[in-house]
Amino acid sequence: MTTVLGRYVILQVLTGTALALLLLATLDLVFAMIGELGDIGRGNYGLQEAMAYALLTFPRRIYELIPTAALLGSLLWLGNLAANGELTAMRAASVTLRRLVFWVLQGGLIVVLAMVALGELVAPGAEARGQTLKSFAFDERLTVSRIGLWARDGNRIVHADAILPDDRLLGVRVVELNPEGGVASITKAGRAVPENGRWRLTDVHKSQFSRSGVVAETSPEVLVDRLLAPEYFGVLVVEPRQMAARDLASYIAYLRENHLDSGVYEVAFWQRMTLPASTWVMLLLALPFLFGRQREGGAGRRLFIGLILGVGFVIVMRGMTHMGLVYDLPPWFAASAPLWLFLLIALLALSRTRV
Prior knowledge:
about 60% helix; seven-stranded antiparallel β-sheet; 10 helices
């Protein structure tokens, strides 16, 4: 059962994280809007659409900022407790370091649960709507979902199950309409690859419909002049880090079934698993700076330390991601190695802490 002191520490963790997140998210939203200015004027994409897109992708960016916000918030707000002598008073009341860590991690648990709910329930859907809004503003014939797209080009309707970052389409279906609006033919292809302004379809099955019946054709490869303009891929491709864990899992299975490289998506999946836990690690990293000689220096010093640690964690995480892909490291290792490294640093620092 949590005591009054415990609830007070938990409240400080939550308050500090919320206020730090508000500051970081506000800055991030401003920079996101600046980043969208370059696309304004393309098609029907105006300032209103840019603002809507930035707001719809906002939950995903908040999700990524939460660990850093937890670190900064705990350094500043729990640091105020240390600077005001409140932590010393708790120690005088027989509050051990282990109990204080337990209270801080309890507050972190609430943050982690909110983070998981945001990242898995809110952010992916909002991200998909943002992508759809942007692609539709660029061209009204395009609609993109979390994985895949629908496109209309005259009497042709194109659907793809998946879009890869190298502009390949998987699970392609092309429906040709006749002048009366009926279906003239349906073409199914395992994949479509753009080549020199044309598209190469592989594993093609085509059915042509007429009043006399259906004619089926099968070809290993077919070249077509038009399918989908490559310039749309900058809008249509959903990056792995923007997808929910369940979507990543199904996407990885899809790629494996088609004997395609799924390394990028597997790393992203394991990062989804480990990123919420990094919030706890960030909280543990903050605690050694609240005691003894390390607590001296004021809020400015603690803010600087928090920024260095937060940026360092992001750099190591992204560096390990690239190293994992280059050197073919196990995805779970590439994604979780930064977490274990910073956890080890936090535990070593706590073990050397003098209260």
